[in-house]
From TrEMBL, chain A:
Residues 31-166, 193-242 form the Exoribonuclease phosphorolytic domain. GO terms for biological process: RNA catabolic process; rRNA processing. It comes from the Eukaryota. InterPro entries: ExoRNase_PH_dom1, ExoRNase_PH_dom2, ExoRNase_PH_dom2_sf, Exosome_comp_Rrp42_subfam, PNPase/RNase_PH_dom_sf, Ribosomal_Su5_D2-typ_SF, Rrp43. Keywords: Acetylation, Cytoplasm, Exosome, Nucleus, RNA-binding, rRNA processing. It comes from Homo sapiens (Human). Belongs to the RNase PH family. This is Exosome complex component RRP43. GO terms for molecular function: RNA binding. It is found in: Cytoplasm; Nucleus, Nucleolus.
Length: 247, 235
């Protein structure tokens, strides 16, 4: 009978739980889902991480390649994130070019990397003006159950911490790069940004780490990214059925 | 009856304290708005903030594709075209922000199974682009006669390295700033509809910026009111 009620009136069903300050999956309003992280699972990538936030699963693989730096920033490398939401993770996505949600998530991750200065781009320089590293970070969602932005940020951070770059020297005679695969070093991760997403219900209730259903029923969502010093890197409040005041 | 209904409503908002350099605090750049300048869209508006200019056109409520129709409300679509080049991922992200702001105020339930399309063209970018796009979109929606529960405005502010707040930054100020925050506020209770930030800042600074943006939004809403009064008055 509860299942019938849930299908017919999902919002009312949800409100019954919220009145008791809990959610259908048994969590409190401020409780996160069980988080699991698996580092270094992809051996062909330079760094990888798999993050599970409840059912939401995101895997991040980082590949490092050579590139020529741009002329206005000759000592800066590149970090290129890309979030892919394939039809595998949810029935709402179709195959083909990236949809709006994937593009927005990619832009969000790019902003987090840029704002929080997680990696100093100068650390990725091998030879100024000639050769720099470019880190292609591919985030693929394997299971979409809400809160994709938090999972992606976490997976990216974990994968970047796992990246090992080989030592590269430029041979002066041949002007070619010589890669020493035996000598690898980790990246210098300067800050650890953490994203937290909230869903707003009926203008008054704020719940943390919304699942897919909760995101759909909520009147709005809000994502805040903070680093260890408590500085905010990003305040992303895109969706709102209505407004709410901050104070 | 296709007369020239070209009602210009060029109002100059009161300036802050004179010309550049602007002091810290609440002076917005000089702004101007022109409505009903395009003949094809149902509503159009051009909004200028200093040297930043955005042209907006609204089509709707109009026919919607069956795949995109929502049974109980209007489908809102926003298309943002940059000044140069093809639209990229950053434009998509901004489109999402503007769309969600519009969805919060437009009374979509009055026009179910229709589509309302807002098309924005960046004419020139000299800082505070997202805020200017929001203002242009709001004016265009008003010009098109789309029912809304409130007006909204965009306000941008920049925080430089020693914590000074500058409202409505120019592109030079944005580049040199430590953080740039853009807020969309509604006209009824000055509540926050959308926020998009870039850079590092603390939460007290966020509260300060939000308070300054709310104060500045008073000027913008007063400008909207005067602009529309001028347009619709008989004299």
């Amino acid at each position: 009978m509860a299942a019938g009620f849930k299908t017919v009136e999902p919002l009312e069903y949800y409100r019954r739980f919220l009145k008791e300050n809990c959610r259908p999956d048994g969590r409190e309003l401020g409780e996160f889902r069980t988080t699991t992280v698996n580092i270094g699972s992809i051996s062909t990538a330079d760094g990888s991480a798999l993050v599970k936030l409840g059912n939401t699963t995101v895997i991040c693989g980082v590949k490092a390649e050579f590139a020529a730096p741009s002329t206005d920033a000759p000592d800066k490398g590149y970090v290129v994130p890309n979030v892919d939401l394939p039809p595998l993770c949810s029935s709402r996505f179709r195959s083909g070019p990236p949809g709006e949600e994937a593009q927005v998530a990619s832009q969000f991750i790019a902003d987090v990397i840029e704002n929080s200065q997680i990696i100093q781009k100068e650390d990725l320089c091998i030879s100024p003006g000639k050769l720099v590293w470019v880190l292609y970070c591919d985030l693929i969602c394997l299971d979409y159950d809400g809160n994709i932005l938090d999972a992606c940020t976490f997976a990216l951070l974990a994968a970047l911490k796992n990246v090992q770059l080989p030592e590269v020297t430029i041979n002066e005679e041949t002007a070619l790069a010589e890669v020493n695969l035996k000598k690898k070093s980790y990246l210098n991760i300067r800050t650890h940004p953490v994203a937290t997403s909230f869903a707003v219900f009926d203008d008054t209730l704020l719940i943390v780490d919304p699942t897919g259903e909760e995101e759909h029923l909520a009147t709005g969502t809000l994502t805040i990214v903070m680093d260890e010093e408590g500085k905010l890197c990003c305040l992303h409040k895109p969706e709102t059925g209505t407004s709410f005041s901050f104070f | 009856m296709e007369e020239e209904t070209h009602t210009d409503a060029k109002i100059r908002a009161e300036n802050g304290t004179g010309s550049s350099p602007r002091g810290p605090g609440c002076s917005l750049r000089h702004f101007a708005c022109e409505q009903n300048l395009l003949s094809r869209p149902d509503g159009s508006a051009s909004f200028l903030q200093g040297d930043t200019s955005v042209l907006a056109g609204v089509y709707g409520p109009a026919e919607v594709k069956v795949s995109k129709e929502i049974f109980n409300k209007a489908t809102l679509e926003v298309i943002l075209r940059p000044k140069i080049g093809l639209p990229g991922v950053a434009e998509k992200s901004r489109e999402r922000l503007i769309r969600n702001t519009c969805e919060a105020v437009v009374l979509g339930t009055l026009h179910p199974r229709t589509s309302i399309t807002v098309v924005l063209q960046v004419v020139s970018d000299a800082g505070s682009l997202l805020a200017c796009c929001l203002n242009a979109a709001c004016m265009a929606l008003v010009d098109a006669g789309v029912p809304m529960r409130a007006l909204f405005c965009g306000v941008a502010c920049a925080l430089d390295s020693d914590g000074t707040l500058v409202l409505d930054p120019t592109s030079k100020q944005e580049k040199e700033a430590r953080a740039v925050l853009t807020f969309a506020l509604d006209s009824v209770e000055r509540k926050l509809l959308m926020s998009s930030t870039k850079g590092l800042y603390s939460d007290t600074e966020l509260q300060q910026c939000l308070a300054a943006a709310q104060a500045a939004s008073q000027h913008v809403f007063r400008f909207y009111r005067e602009s529309l009064q001028r347009r619709y008055s008989k004299s």
